[in-house]
Amino acid sequence: MNLISENVIPVPRSGHTANLIDERIYFLGGLHGPYTPPENNVYLDLTVNFSRATPPFLKLDSLKNLPSLCYSTTCSIKTSNVSSIFLYGGIQEIPNSGHHWEPANLTMKIDISPTISTWVSDSLPASLIPGRARLQAVTDRTGQVYIWGGTLNLKGLIDNSMYIYNTINESWKVSQAKQEIESRYDYSATLLSDGRILYIGGFKSRDNLMVDIKQIIIYNTQNEDSPWSKQSTQSSLNISSRAEHTAVLSPDEKKVILYGGHTNFVTPQYPFLVLDIAQMIWTLPELGNLPVQIPRAHTATMFQNYMFIAFGNYNMADQYYNETNDLRILDLSNGNYKFVENYVVPSPISSSSVLSTTRETPPNINENAPLKPQKFNVGLIASIIGGSLFILSLMAVTGYILHYKNKKGGRGKYTSTSTSASIRTRGGGQQQQQQQQQQANLASQIPNRDLATISDRRGSNLVTKIVL
Q1: CB 9 within 8 A of CB 301
Q2: Which residues pair with 120 in a beta bridge?
């Protein structure tokens, strides 16, 4: 079954998912109108230059029978053998229910290759992993998927447990959150380079009570004993709370770029913000060409210095369903922020941009990455060997001269060794000659021990360089 069929103009949608694998962004599911799934799943080819007015979307014919899900969450895993998309939850139509939709506990694995795509449905017991929707998942470097929050039904009930899915052995475990950690839905989840996950914004009750965007919940994937914490952020701006926004890690991994969303279905006053991770301060970057229409329930995918903002629902107070198939391109080259009309393939393409989840781009997973070969410093080794031979030769000649003079006899003289210490001998006769012989032998042995010490230290330094 061919993965690629033909170029297509995507059906407008929102609540979809986006996954970056190699140089393609895969868009799955979503809504087109009131609980109506779009007609096709598509992907965007990033190996060619294009204008955002005519982006090269292609249909995924092999996934046309994929169950229709919206407001689900996905993450992608790329190893040396296969690339896969794991899809969890979402809102799914109940069969024979008269178009009744409920959150699903469906988990699917979609294997991706350049020509073939296959999917496998794997239902999980509802008692273990309750069905949920309107959530985000992230994946760490070890292939662990972290799923938190979301709605357990369409009325907005929430579960604050962290469900962790191991994509390697396909197993689940549950991490209970502290009581003071309030769960939420329609938030953003951003994985930082140090393993922390930032949960920003969203709703925290069935009454659509919005979360204060300045209060961030943090889950530390590197601290199993106490992973949960809260963090207050600062800003000189009057930042409004929001939901259904996106927040992705910047290319330099020092900032979180927040875009879009809504404040009770009205466009926020500041729809484009940047969070400095080190200082936890929100700022408004210079951006002279911010689009007039701001989406919610869209996706944002970082690739090199480009951020692709795809589809979503434009916030119009008098029209709840206003999906779009628009594609926005944000260029972050040289630390600037600028919306552009054309995408130019970066050169060279970096291998660090091969993994993403729906709304953020975590690092690549490579189980069999080869170690980087290191080069020996040939000049250093040659210098050590040459210097060692010179010292040995010098000590041998010195020892022979001392031995010859002592053998010839003589009165009390001073003799020197390579240790810079002076040894004075007195008298003559056989006893004196034996003492002088022992001293000469000792003198000839000291350089060898010093040379061994030098060799050991140099060897240690070389090994350290090889490891690094």
Answers
A1: no
A2: 109
> Whose CA is closest to 36, among 69, 73, 72?
69
pTM of the model: 0.73
Beta-carbon contacts of 226 under 8 Å, excluding residues fewer than 6 positions away, are: 220
- Give CA–CA dist 137/357, Å, rounded: 7
Q: Which residue reads 């204008």 in tokens?
A: 51
Contact 107, 123 (CB under 8 A): yes
Distance CA 295, CA 416 (A): 87
Distance of CA 391 to the CA centre of its chain: 53
Distance CA 163, CA 176 (A): 9
| Cβ atoms of 42 and 8 closer than 8 Å | yes
Half-sphere exposure for 455 (CA within 13 Å, toward CB): 13
Residue 1 · residue 61 · CB < 8 Å: yes
Closest among 246, 257, 253 to 192, alpha carbons compared: 253
The pair phi, psi for residue 258, each rounded to 5°, is -105, 135
What is the Cα–Cα distance from 270 to 288, expressed in whole angstroms? Answer: 13
- In sign, the C-alpha dihedral spanning 138, 141, 143, 146 is negative
Torsion region of 264: left, alpha or beta (phi above 0 gives left; psi -120 to 50 gives alpha): left
**Contact at 8 Å (CB) between 282 and 274?**
yes
Taking a C-beta distance cutoff of 8 angstroms, is the pair 125, 98 a contact?
no
Cα separation, 343 vs 316, whole angstroms: 29
What's the rounded Cα separation, in Å, for the pair 288 and 443? 79
Cβ-count burial 342-365 (b if 16+ within 10 Å, e if not):
ebeeeeeeeeebbbbbbbbbbbbb
DSSP annotation of 392: H
Distance from C-alpha of 363 to C-alpha of 141, rounded to nearest angstrom? 6
In DSSP terms, 449 is beta-bridged to none
Taking the alpha carbons at both ends of the chain, their separation in whole angstroms is 46
Please check whether residue 40 is in contact with residue 11, taking contact to mean a CB–CB distance below 8 angstroms.
Answer: yes
The whole-number mean pLDDT for each consecutive block of 10 residues of the chain, a chain of 468 residues, reads 64 92 90 78 93 92 70 74 80 68 75 64 57 88 89 73 84 82 92 96 83 95 91 95 96 96 92 97 89 94 96 78 93 92 83 41 41 39 51 57 48 34 38 49 40 29 25
**HSE, side-chain direction, 13 A CA sphere, residue 203:** 22
Query: What string of DSSP letters covers 285-342?
Result: ---TT--SS-EES-EEEEETTEEEEE--EE-BTTBS--BB--EEEEE-GGG--EEESE
Residue 378 φ then ψ, to 5°: -60, -40
pLDDT confidence of residue 294 = 94
Distance in angstroms (rounded) separating the CA atoms of residues 464 and 79: 29
